[in-house]
């Protein structure tokens, strides 16, 4: 069997790291991880995601989506988008979900904090609207706008 250098290095690395260290790394990764079996039961949630939604892992593990509160259902299993807003008591976060099925039939959901990106996009849209409002010429035609006429007087 021929291995590329990357595959060989990866195999050596995974074999040299014990399972306890692997679990610790995954549990404290900078992204959220939720593992759901094919029946829908939640098998595991990492510390990061548990802290983001401010719910102890023990209250989530073993539950099915219908057993969770509506906010968690919308966050963990969004139906209309891959990015969902989570609104806690003192926080609002935007989490982008990427999913991957395993050979055993379980699904791993990875969550990335998109909060800063969402706020920047919102702020950018407001700034664009303000620029359009203050512009002295029409962006499309290049003709002077009402704002431009008022400043010229």
How is the secondary structure organized here?
Blueprint: H1 5-16, H2 19-27, E1 32-36, E2 42-45, H3 47-52, H4 70-76, E3 83-87, E4 92-101, E5 107-113, H5 115-134, H6 146-152
Antiparallel strand pairs: 1-2, 1-5, 3-4, 4-5
Q: Could you walk me through the main structural features you see in this protein, from its secondary elements to its overall organization?
A:
- With 153 residues, this protein is of the alpha+beta class.
- The chain is 40% helix and 20% strand.
- The protein is built from 6 helices and 5 strands, in the order ααββααβββαα.
- It has a 5-stranded antiparallel sheet.
- The model has no long low-confidence stretch (mean pLDDT 84).
Biggest pleated sheet: 5 strands, antiparallel
Gyration radius over CA: 24 Å
Sequence of secondary-structure elements: HHEEHHEEEHH
Described by the principal axes of the CA atoms, the overall outline is elongated
Please tally the helical runs, counting DSSP H or I stretches of 4 or more residues. Answer: 6
Q: Could you say which structural class the secondary elements and strand pairing correspond to?
A: alpha+beta
Count of β-strands: 5
Strand line-up of the largest beta sheet: 2-1-5-4-3
Low-confidence stretches: none
Mean pLDDT: 84
